[in-house]
Amino acid sequence: MSCKSPLILGIESSCDETAAAVITGDRQILSHRLAGQEREHAPYGGVVPEIAARAHVEAVMPLVEAALADAKLTLADLDAIAATAGPGLIGGVMVGLVTAKALAHAANKPLIAVNHLEGHALSPRLTDPDLEFPYLLLLVSGGHCQLLSVDGVGRYRRLATTIDDAAGEAFDKTAKLLGLGFPGGPAVERAAAEGEPKAVPLPRPLFGSPEPHFSFAGLKSAVLRARDAGTHRPQDIAASFQAAVVDCLIDRTRRAIERAPEATALVVAGGVAANTAIRAALAALAGDNGLRFVAPPLWLCTDNAAMIGWAGAERFALGLTDGLDVAARPRWPLDPAAETVRGAGVKA
Ligand code: KG4
Ligand code: ZN
């Protein structure tokens, strides 16, 4: 047995990014490659599943080859192959998972089926070796908005979820309503920087409610009304929208902190964690509550394969590998015991 740190190939294809990365069990990122599909989906203002699946098919093997070449490795050098097995757009998930299965079979390497959300949840530990369990995680992406107590690898307790839209979805829909372009999050953030956050009075759904759940559908409707009123600049609506999201995230997270007294850190992950205003507000909240604040670097917040490789490395270290018959899963909650929340849509 060699005592060198394991080498893990990660593959991601659950939404509109195809990605491959090679990381080590001791937190070195040897390579990470990514191909977005913004151009393909831009005419539709959102991700079209069929177009996404086709684009993943074309991109995945060249990216795997490039990631291996960047790391100066071949398949034979790897210790395991990890791929997102869900949740996500099923056509895309299947492309990445089937590719990983074929490579694992051909090179006789163990396969690790990674939950995409676990990839986000553990990603802060890739760049922060001091981040120990348990920590309170705000997971905010295009499809998810949850507060979780991360008690260990594979051990997640959901404290809150959204009862309607995810935070990233609210950013994307607001961008579409305001004609700011796709993908919406960064576009809204850019417009907000030119606007006045107090210009448009917008609601803060569920603010102050006892359970730490989220809701963003009413905010989106209010953005639509503000736009149709025709009296506000898009930049002012964007800034006011972003301020409302920040207020909601902070209020709900504050409530969850009360319910996770054992947490040592407040951690944010997922695509929306790339937002500077949200990161700054969360850092202040953590400070007020004597918690360390940890956020992955921006590139590691949005979908990527390094986080999938890292979740694979964490599972590999515990001997958690999967058979080649493992299925792709369109839905796959991190906390299977969590109850469906009244009013929750498919995102719960
Ligand atoms: O984690 P991610 O890359 O994909 C999913 O798993 O959903 O998250 C993408 C989401 C999108 O909704 C995007 O608009 C949002 O993250 N996002 C942002 C920012 N960058 C990406 N939202 C707000 N501000 C940003 N800077
Ligand atoms: Zn994601």
Verbal overview:
The termini are far apart. The protein has 348 residues and is of the alpha/beta class. The chain has a five-stranded mixed sheet with strand order 3-2-1-4-5, sandwiched between helices. Strand 9, helix 9 and strand 10 (292-294) form a beta-alpha-beta unit. It folds into two domains: 7-121 and 300-332, ATPase, nucleotide binding domain (Nucleotidyltransferase, domain 5, 2-Layer Sandwich); 133-296, Nucleotidyltransferase, domain 5 (2-Layer Sandwich), CATH 3.30.420.40. Helix 4 (116-127) crosses helix 11. The chain has helices spanning 38-41, 49-70, 90-107, 116-127, 167-177, 184-192, 217-229, 234-258, 276-288, 298-301, 306-317; strands spanning 7-12, 17-24, 29-36, 80-86, 111-115, 135-140, 145-152, 155-160, 265-269, 292-294. The protein contains eleven helices and ten strands. Zinc ion is lined by residues 116, 120, 141, 270-271, 303.
